[in-house]
Amino acid sequence: MEAIAPAKSLVEKTYDALLDAICAGEFRPGERLGQDEVAERLNVSRQPVNSAIAMLKAQRFVIDTGRRGVIVAPVDRQLFESIYQVRSAIEPLAVELATPRISPEAIKRGREIVARGTRLMQSNDPSGVLQADIDFHTLIYELSGNAIIVDTMRLNWQHLRRSMGEVLRFPGMTFQVWKEHRAIFNAMVSGDAADAAAKMRSHITEAPRRVVREA
User: Fold this and answer.
1) Largest alpha-carbon pair distance within the chain?
2) Domain locations in the chain?
3) pLDDT tens per residue across span 162-187
4) pTM for the full model?
């Protein structure tokens, strides 16, 4: 029997909603985050908004500019590149470990995620596509059976999320990402760990290059 996870507080829910909006590009770098407007949009009081913004400020997602108020921080290119350097080392290993461990239940779950991501891409839902992208990679981390991989990615989850959102915002990128996800997962289902790892390595190393080309 598993322990029941405690319900999230209103501050945590507000933080999650703001972080999702920043990562999905609903709030762009340099855009002002007015507490009153955010509170009205989320249908909450100013208190949880102020607390959530303080958390985002501590993690460098927003900046207090003084007279202009709080704005969304620009993407830290050095951090972005560092995240993808780590991902290019970890994720091919994760998928190589995950492939022989894949179960019928995991295959069903993976196919659902790929189908959901493709469907949301076609309906132009940036936040939903981003969440499906995260769900796909999280499934692989968990299937790897390596707790260090899971913990390493979880520790940097917020910035990992934004780096994924940065990749997905470019025209045509979402289609390519989900095409590659499908190919990676098909290799896993066929039991070819080496092919799945090679496809994952290409998927991760190409993403920042595409961003540089498109920027």
Assistant:
1) 58
2) 10-72, 77-214
3) 887 877 776 677 888 899 999 999 99
4) 0.78
